[in-house]
Each structure stands twice: as structure tokens, then as C-alpha cells.
């Protein structure tokens, strides 16, 4: 019988050693994945993650961004091996001079330095001058004429900053400084590459600023100015030929709180009752519906994908929840009126004849 490869060995020891070796290899590969393969400092993905983590923890920091001037000429005149050695020497200086601060090669001849503690502009300028001096000491073999220099941009932490925002500000300054250095526009190919990079960064920044940070279920509560802007935008969209059918399912609902006899709600009850109604409107509607406080006793709601019957169901649901959560011995009534959205060009001339009124007083039973 053929002898087993594992016969006479301790399987537990073998398995243990194998796991330990595997863990070490995984750690080694993880470390390698975080580094730039040529220079041995952080790559772009890693530095973005680490800077975001530092900003989230300390809410402070400063960034220096730089790229090497005329680096293409180095590759063209001395070869790509000399260019690679130059980049490695830059990384060596960064690691030696920056201490525990984070450094990375973000692409080509572009590098990022991040200082966890916020520096003022004078301190950043001192850092820049020191680094420029160190870079000027780098030499290329068999060349006595070459002197290395760099163009810089910087950014100091501002509220709600992340890597994208700080990099974008620093990159814009870098580009301005590079153009001022040469007093002429950079080559079209270089300008196009940097422009594409800036557009990509700006796009990320815009999406970050516009998107809702922590989306929640229920209707979206807005300021009156924003609500009015959305309403007018949809009015204008209705004016476009071929789009009227797409938006005819938008309805506006007005909820009004009154006393049982129809009078104005007493001030001592108003704030509490309006807060209760706000909660029920929010919870009864969907994430794509919006609402706003119109007056001290009224809310405006804009709903989509609805008709008169659907609006009636929505209103009834709000009222039932309001009355179900209302304290005892209160006599408030919700008056509700709704109308469909119309093209802005018809507003005023047809609103009285086409609005769908569904006034009602629903008393708490």
C-alpha cells in the first residue's frame, strides 16, 4: 500500500504552522497592496482612506500636494530608469523628513503629504521651502546641469472636509503655481490630463455636497424657499411639450389645524399640535414626497404619482395617525385642501376652475 504523505506526522502542528504562515502571507500582501510598487510609500487609494480616517477622528490637518517640474524631460533625456530612480529618491526624502506624517505617490510624479495637526499658512510655507531645498539636492547620474524642483499646492482643514475636498483645493493651487512658474500654458496633453483629473475630483465633491448624508424613511421636510424652488421647477417642466403627462400626477396638499368650531388654534396648544402633525405627515408619506410648514397652523405637502383618490387616502392616513396619537380632551380638527400641479403658464388664469377642492372637517370621534 502506498504510504500517505502525512503518515507519521502531527497533523495539528502541520495545520497550525500552515495557518500561521498563511496569516503572515496575508499580512504581507495587505501591506504591499497599500504601497506604491515603485517608491514604497502609500498609494492613492491608501492615502485617501487614511486621511479620511484621520480627519474623522481629529477634525484637523493640513495637506501639501506637489509634482515635479519638467519630469517628462528627465525620461526623454536620461531614460525611464533614471526617472524611476528619481521618484524613488523623492520618496526616500519624504520618508526621512516627514517623520510620522503620511506621504503617498498619487500618480506619475505627483505626491501628497498630510500633517495630522492643522498648520497655518506660514508653517506650511516653511514646510514647502524645506522640502524644495531637499528636492534640489537630488542629482541624476552623469548630469551636472539638472536641478530638481517642484510645484506645490496646499489645503488646511475646514469644517466637513474629507480627502476629496482638501485634494481639490490643493490641486487648483498647484495648477495656478505651475502656470505662473512657466508664464505660459502647459502642453495641451498635460493640461487635458490635469483637467480630466480636476473634473473627476470636482464631480466627487459635488456629489458629496449634494447627496443626503444620512437618508431616512418618510417625507423630506424642507425650508419654504427650497419647497418653492421645487414647485416652480416642476411648473416649468410641465410647460415642455410631451412632458405634461409625465408630471400630471403631482399634487399639493394643504393641512390646516383649527379648533372644533373652526377658529384659530389657541397659542398654548399650537406648538405641541403642530409638532404632532409634522411627525404624522413625515411618517405617513414616502421618501420622494416633500413638505414644509406654511404658517403657524399649516403644512404644505407635495406628493408624486398620485391622483385625487390617492390624495384622499394619503390625507385620511395622516388624520387617523394624528388623532390616534393626540392627547385626550383636545378638540382640534384638520381641514385639508388639495390641487394638482399645473404648468406655470396657466397659473392664475385657470387655477380657480381646475383646482380640485376637497375641503372637509373631520372631527375626532
From TrEMBL:
UniProt keyword Nucleotidyltransferase present: yes
Q: What molecular function terms (GO) are annotated for this protein? A: diguanylate cyclase activity
Q: Where is the GGDEF domain?
A: 59-190
Check the record and name the Pfam families matching this protein.
GGDEF
Q: Does the record bear Nucleotidyltransferase in its keywords?
A: yes
| Leading EC class | transferase
Q: Which InterPro entries match?
A: Diguanylate_Cyclase, GGDEF_dom, Nucleotide_cyclase, Rev_trsase/Diguanyl_cyclase
- The EC designation for this entry is 2.7.7.65
Keywords of the record: Nucleotidyltransferase, Transferase
Q: What ranges does the record give for the region Disordered, renumbered to this chain?
A: 344-365
According to the UniProt entry, which residue ranges have a biased composition of type Polar residues?
A: 344-354
Q: Which PANTHER family match?
A: DIGUANYLATE CYCLASE DGCM-RELATED (PTHR45138:SF9), REGULATORY COMPONENTS OF SENSORY TRANSDUCTION SYSTEM (PTHR45138)
Q: What is this protein called?
A: GGDEF domain-containing protein
Q: Supply the source organism for this entry.
A: Enterocloster hominis
Amino acid at each position: 500500500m502506498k504510504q500517505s504523505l502525512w503518515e507519521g506526522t502531527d497533523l495539528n502542528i502541520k495545520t497550525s504552522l500552515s495557518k500561521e504562515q498563511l496569516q503572515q502571507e496575508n499580512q504581507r500582501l495587505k501591506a504591499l497592496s497599500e504601497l506604491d510598487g515603485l517608491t514604497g510609500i502609500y498609494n492613492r487609494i491608501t492615502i485617501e482612506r487614511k486621511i479620511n480616517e484621520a480627519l474623522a477622528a481629529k477634525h484637523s490637518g493640513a495637506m501639501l500636494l506637489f509634482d515635479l517640474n519638467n519630469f517628462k524631460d528627465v525620461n526623454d533625456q536620461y531614460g525611464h530608469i533614471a526617472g524611476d530612480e528619481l521618484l524613488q529618491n523623492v520618496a526616500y526624502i519624504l520618508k526621512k523628513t516627514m517623520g510620522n506624517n503620511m506621504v503617498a505617490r498619487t500618480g506619475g510624479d505627483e505626491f501628497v503629504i498630510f500633517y495630522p495637526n492643522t498648520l497655518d499658512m506660514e508653517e506650511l510655507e516653511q514646510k514647502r521651502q524645506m522640502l524644495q531645498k531637499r528636492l534640489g539636492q537630488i542629482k541624476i547620474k552623469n548630469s551636472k546641469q539638472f536641478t530638481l524642483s517642484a510645484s506645490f499646492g496646499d489645503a488646511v482643514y475646514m469644517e466637513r472636509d474629507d480627502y476629496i475636498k482638501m485634494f481639490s483645493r490643493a490641486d487648483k493651487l498647484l495648477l495656478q503655481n505651475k502656470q505662473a512658474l512657466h508664464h505660459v500654458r502647459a502642453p495641451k496633453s498635460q493640461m487635458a490630463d490635469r483637467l480630466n483629473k480636476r473634473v473627476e475630483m470636482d464631480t466627487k465633491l459635488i456629489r458629496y455636497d449634494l447627496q443626503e448624508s444620512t437618508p431616512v424613511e418618510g417625507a423630506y421636510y424642507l425650508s419654504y424657499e427650497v419647497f418653492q424652488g421645487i414647485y416652480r421647477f416642476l411648473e416649468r417642466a410641465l410647460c415642455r411639450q410631451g412632458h405634461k403627462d409625465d408630471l400630471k400626477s403631482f399634487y399639493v396638499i394643504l393641512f390646516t389645524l383649527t379648533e372644533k368650531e373652526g377658529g384659530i388654534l389657541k397659542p398654548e396648544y399650537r406648538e405641541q399640535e403642530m409638532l404632532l402633525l409634522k411627525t404624522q405627515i413625515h411618517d405617513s408619506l414616502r421618501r420622494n414626497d416633500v413638505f414644509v410648514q406654511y404658517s403657524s397652523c399649516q403644512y404644505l405637502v407635495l406628493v408624486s404619482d398620485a391622483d385625487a383618490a390617492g390624495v384622499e387616502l394619503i390625507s385620511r392616513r395622516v388624520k387617523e395617525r394624528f388623532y390616534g396619537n393626540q392627547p385626550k380632551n383636545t378638540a382640534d380638527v384638520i381641514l385639508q385642501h388639495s390641487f394638482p400641479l399645473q404648468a406655470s403658464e396657466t397659473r392664475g388664469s385657470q387655477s380657480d376652475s381646475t383646482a380640485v377642492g376637497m375641503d372637509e372637517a373631520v372631527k375626532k370621534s
